[in-house]
């Protein structure tokens, strides 16, 4: 967990991912993290996940919370389609 990773909030107004380049953020309770395979560029993956294709999929598939917020739950994130260049098991690393 103490390595570079992507972070996202469990409940968010819009699905968004951030890069923890130093690996010093320890997510708790309301933050999920994603540790991609070694060959995956974090910036490229974050750009894809924050892009229109992934955002549209998330908005269509995430459960809604109060006040129109999205729930980015593991069960949904595991099904998020990602291009092969990001690895076959990328969803399995989402905790």
From TrEMBL:
Pfam families, alphabetized: TaqI_C
InterPro entries associated with the record: TaqI_C
Domain TaqI-like C-terminal specificity, first and last residues per copy: 3-82
Name of this protein: TaqI-like C-terminal specificity domain-containing protein
The organism of origin for this protein: Halorubrum laminariae
